[in-house]
Amino acid sequence: MKKNILINPGLKKIKSRYAYSTLSNLIVRNLKYHTNSYNFIILIEKNKKNQNHIKKNKNKYIKYILIKTLNNKILNYLKLLFVINFTAIKFKVDLICSLSNYGLIFSFKPQLIYIHDFGSFIFNSKLDNRNKIPRFFTNLIQSISVRKSEYLIFNSKFISKFFLKKFKSKGFKNYGIVGCTYKNFYSTKFKKENSILFIGGFFGLKNQEFLINYFNNFNNNIKLIIAGVDYDKNYYNFCKKIKQNNNQIKIFKNPTDEKLKELYNKSKFYISPSLFEGFSITPLEALSANCKIILSDIQAHKEIYGNKIHYFKTKNLTSLKRVFDKSKSNNYKNICNDLYNKKLKYEFSEKNFINKIIMSFDNYFKNHVL
Questions:
Q1: Could you give the percent of the chain with pLDDT greater than 90?
Q2: Alpha carbon 219 to chain centroid, angstroms
Q3: What does the H/E/C string look like for 289-304?
Q4: Per-residue pLDDT tens for 28-84?
Q5: φ, ψ of residue 160 in degrees (nearest 5)
Q6: Which of 287, 294, 329, 349 could, after both became Cys, cross-link 340 (CB 3.0–4.6 A)?
Q7: Helix 208-217 vs helix 233-242: crossing angle, to nearest 10
Q8: Residue 363: helix, strand or coil by DSSP?
Q9: How far apart are alpha carbons 163 and 178 in whole angstroms?
Q10: What is d(CA 226, CA 201) in angstroms, rounded to the nearest whole number?
Q11: pTM of the model
């Protein structure tokens, strides 16, 4: 008998491209290929774009529930809590799958959560752009929902270790590492320029000021391009200020996917100075556009991109200069291309990622005793 799965993508107001919103959309878009064993009930933001999508993609095994997202995050969560539980009972759901890093603090049905970040537990508001009340609210929901969840899936091993140690008993085995996926931005419309790119929302953890200081302190005959959503407006304005009058540095706010495609394909180098990532999708996108990547030496980068990539110490300008100079060779370009084309391209492909999500559903229903 087919099982009914309710997909909760974690609806929230997003004014520009957001990595895990894109990810949720990829998952939802691919569920139509996996309806042999499952019926899906999917929550989706109520807007014209999604309404047109539903009309064009009718499927008797997939039901969409249109929901208007509220601006207030707390009220929006409480609304989702009611709607999800009501829908789960109405459609006799067997499993609720939450994709947004946390699930329901109260659920009438078993739930599976996709977890990809624990930053709010260890950083302050200066770094992650969360004030005390939103941080408390986020951490409370995440801790309760993880404890109550019957099955967990993670984007990386180091994220799984944090949550399993903090919130689950020592013998808990109902979890899996599914990784992540990315958008391929390769295009032949653009020619490479002598430039460095970083894509990331403007707040302290992304560490844009480090790259700007690097360019202000070292005389580089190369352009620096930084693009991202201005989540923390104060930090965004600070970055613009310390840029000074350096014409070699360009900053783009709230870029569209088309703009990102242009930036990725024009840039020779991609440098991520992030102080923390749960997975770090943008270096994958950069590799898809034939950029050479240089990354900060944080756990996520090293786990996903391995030991052949060049890493620098965060907050150490001299370390970045040394690594950047070493990365200019054609040999390093070949290393980056081989890593992407022979390994990462397949390991984190959209198809492979979706298959792992479906396998998690299979494992839950096969092994978990209700």
A1: 68
A2: 33
A3: CCCEEEEECCHHHHHH
A4: 788 888 999 999 999 988 888 888 888 888 889 999 999 888 888 888 889 999 999
A5: -60, -40
A6: 287
A7: 10
A8: helix
A9: 15
A10: 10
A11: 0.91
